[in-house]
Amino acid sequence: MSAPLIDKYRKMATFDWRKLKAAVEGEEHVRLKAEVVAKMKSEPVFQRDFRVLSREEHREVVHQRWKKIVEWGLFKDPYSDLENFHALTETLEAYDQGTSARLFLHGNVFGAAVKSMGTERHKELVQQIENNEIVGAFCLTEIGHGSNTAEIQTTATFDNGQLVFNTPDVGAIKCWAGNVCKSFLRRFRYTFCLISAHSATHVVVYAQLHVGGKNEGFHGFVIQVRCPKTFQTLPGITIGDMGSKPGCWQGVENGWIEFKNHRAPLSALLNKGCDITPDGKYVTSFKSASEKQSVSLGTLSVGRKQIIIFRLGIIAKGMMACTFASTIAIRYSVARRQFGPEKGAENEIPVLEYPLQQYRLFPYLSAAICIRIFQKTFVEKFTEYMMRVMMGEKSEELSEFSKEVHALSSGAKPVATWLGVESLGEARKACGGHGFLHMSRLNTLRDDNDPSQTFEGENFMILQQTSNILLGKVSSIGTINTPMSTMSFLNSNPSKFSSWSSNPVDDVLSAYRYLTYHLLQTTSSEAKKLKGAGKNSFEVRNEIQVHRAVNLSVAYTEHTMIDWVQQFVEEVEDVTVKRVLQKVLNLFSLFLLERHLATLYITGYASGGKFGEDLREKLRHAVAELKPESMALVDSIAPDDFILHSALGASDGRAYDHIMEEFRKYTNEQPKWVCDLAQFLQKRSQTSKL
Ligand SMILES: Cc1cc2nc3c(=O)[nH]c(=O)nc-3n(C[C@H](O)[C@H](O)[C@H](O)COP(=O)(O)OP(=O)(O)OC[C@H]3O[C@@H](n4cnc5c(N)ncnc54)[C@H](O)[C@@H]3O)c2cc1C
């Protein structure tokens, strides 16, 4: 039975949360997710408590869950059953990113790398991967090189018809082994491969290829690293674990690998577009060194699309983080009562009543909904693009499409993951002391989501990809016409602020257009100035980042997010749902824009304090407007309690009961060391009497 207070808040809503959920997620998706959850609930291996597991225990439980999902055979072919596959992926990601990583991410990257860079001679291996007869990992990052992958130092040297792998120094030791992104699976066949520390039998490894004394550059190879029966490493290979990691990543076997004269057959070279003849001649069909590098780095053809698919998946991680943060903190804020207009515990009010608490939490509630709508729209547009690629289209418009998708995904991944991690930190603080308990899950979830800001392109690094593409458009201002129309507004100089309209989102979009346009202009003229002063292109690119290129990428991305969500809301048929979604978007857009207030003034969008005062007043109003809707909105986004797994955030609103249920598990405990304490105290008391 729910607590009366949470029900009171539920009744304040002006809409049916189920209808909103169906409108945002799609009825079929909601139904399929419920099916997966029901299956997991029925299986003992998916039951969990709040105990902190050791590294060994954590990995074993993840392994058992992985096995169960494999046995269920839930996702034989994502191509033929994409809806089911999306439902499974989202549910597993919400349940535990470590389990989903073990299931999907590393294996798919390994398998896809073999498929995209390999040829006919790797067919048998591909078959083994698909049959789960071997276990694979992906080794690109080294101790000394992550972002700058082209400079990795591991070597593969042709010698007597074989390849000899070496790690020249400590910086060249492979680490992290694996790769990340769930939605990669949405389009590509997958395999179940584990990470290298304990389980991998094979790895895709990147190394500098030396043939006949010449370095032919960075190449991909697939090699066996362990015997699949004994799991002993092969000669010349040392593998270890990377030690403890926070959150769910403790359950993931990220490992390091060192090579010392490890010999592998020539077929280890993933030889699409290049090869070594048995007598030791390097041959290539690549026209240039950079093309060769592009294929090896996986940034051409399928590879570039894979990166975008990874990023689309990571945007969803940001959405999920905001979902967990707002669900747990808003439900708890109704159960938690502190102070009141008059003295007496009976007069205390739920902390959700405080405008400051609302101001800290509701923006992330709106972000959870808006990022989901944006991500879903982006996936649809990307699918349309992929269909054209698969149909073999080769047009200038399609290559423009590719660039635009790349620019937006490189901006949206940072914006979404930063918001996600930030939301969990704020939610933890908004839940006070109890928020710090492991059973709130907020700190653990924060740890789970933390690396989403770094992997698959460190956020600040990939924002540079967005700004580079935007800066490339400066010379064609007036004729910019991109397939998704995210840049068309840059064709004309947007006007300064004059007055507010009746629609805050229209006003926010106008401000963003001005902001993006002016950031593009100032970044571009700064670059010209630096070039004129004799700086080289490396220096120029670095010196235009702070306050300029980074802000440009963020502004462009946020403008598109808001614009697409607005278009979605306009299409919603149910009037009550549409009205509340509009309130959600009002808040999301004002919340994001307020962060750019200083730059808006600096770039001359407005002068005097009134614009800023008005913007903030509108933001406070948007927050207040969401209060009566907030609990139903939470219900519309909240995962099932089994998946949410938070003593503070359960849907029945009985946070104290759940907290005490956990506390009581530790009633009158007598750990072994208290005997030692008793003896110590006794000894002290005897000594003091002497
Ligand atoms: C949980 C987790 C799982 C991972 N899994 C894998 C995996 O499976 N396989 C794999 O190969 N790797 C994996 N990685 C590694 C990951 O891909 C890299 O850590 C990531 O690419 C960032 O690279 P880096 O660590 O070298 O960061 P660095 O490049 O060293 O970045 C450090 C700092 O320098 C800044 N910086 C660097 N260059 C510039 C520049 N030009 N301009 C401005 N600032 C700059 C960055 O913004 C950052 O703030 C994983 C990492 C984590 C945390």
From TrEMBL:
GO terms for biological process: fatty acid beta-oxidation using acyl-CoA oxidase; lipid homeostasis. One of its GO terms (molecular function) is fatty acid binding. InterPro entries: ACO, ACOX_C_alpha1, Acyl-CoA_Oxase/DH_mid-dom_sf, Acyl-CoA_oxidase, Acyl-CoA_oxidase_C, AcylCo_DH-like_C, AcylCoA_DH/oxidase_NM_dom_sf. GO terms for cellular component: peroxisome. It is found in: Peroxisome. Its main location: other. Residues 307-471 form the Acyl-CoA oxidase C-alpha1 domain. Pathway: Lipid metabolism; peroxisomal fatty acid beta-oxidation. FAD binds at residues 141, 178. Its cofactor is FAD. Gene3D superfamilies: Butyryl-CoA Dehydrogenase, subunit A, domain 2, Butyryl-CoA Dehydrogenase, subunit A, domain 3. Keywords: FAD, Fatty acid metabolism, Flavoprotein, Lipid metabolism, Oxidoreductase, Peroxisome. Residues 506-670 form the Acyl-CoA oxidase C-terminal domain. Belongs to the acyl-CoA oxidase family. This is Acyl-coenzyme A oxidase.
